[in-house]
Amino acid sequence: MKEIRGAEVAKALKAQMTEDIAALGGYIPQLVIVRVGERPDDISYEKGAAKRALAMGLRCTSFVFDAEISHEEFVMEFQKINKDPEVDGILMLRPLPKQINEKEIERLIDPGKDIDCIGPMNLARVFAGETDAYAPCTAEAVMEMLKYEGIDLKGKRVTIVGRSLVVGKPLAMLMLGQHATVTICHTRTADFQGTCHNAEILVAAAGKAKMIKKEHVADGAIVIDVGINLDEEGNLCGDVDYEEVKKTAGIVTPVPGGVGSVTTLVLLKHLIQAAKQKRR
Ligand code: NAD
Question: What Enzyme Commission number(s) does the record list for this chain (predicted)?
Fold first, then answer.
């Protein structure tokens, strides 16, 4: 069994991105992170993204709003950021507090700055197969891992577990774009085990700790684990029972150290792309 380690994929991506930044002729792209409230998950994601952006020599600014901010006031503040020509890309941490109509904000975001693909325009472009659209970063991170490993998707049987708009559905579209034959499983899939076992490439994105066991995985299959969960002991784990699956799978991605370590870099890749687009 082989592992695809996120750090190796990230290193290769970084090398390309450094060249892309240099090609901007001295312009430094600016990422803006929008956070409402003090949720620990948001703060830790924000810190990680900011650290990576700054380490790559990019600009990163955080705007933090009170958890009690009204919808109207947030729209006003968000639009200032959205319309600021110095802002190249926006990462808005979600979910937003209940009083804010998140759907309205998603519709407001400038598609050219929507590097995390929260707005309907970018999502529609991904579904239309436009290759220069900003796809949801996790879905694209899965594609980057497969690309790094030189895996050709053409004609391959792929099963994706999970049909969310941030991972499962857009990933299915990206894979169809590479001519894979894609099946999506969800909580009501009838022959779940059989559908997983039929796959040459199995992607787990359900958010259920260690739910993918060896009986779900064909011998030699490629297993990409997107899940981020805590096991009974409170340790970080994926959707795949790694210890069990590694005995028969061909390739498995670890958690931590797999897809998650590529996701933020994809966001920064989009930021550089957005800056390049703006300067055209
Ligand atoms: P979600 O809850 O929005 O969607 C989960 C999907 O999985 C649903 O479509 C549901 O039908 C399906 N599902 C759940 N339990 C199932 C089961 N027992 N059998 C079959 N299908 C089942 O979750 P999400 O936002 O798509 O995230 C999925 C996982 O990926 C989570 O663990 C999340 O933490 C992780 N995630 C990781 C990254 C990353 O960077 N690696 C980014 C986003 C999400």
Answer: 1.5.1.5, 3.5.4.9
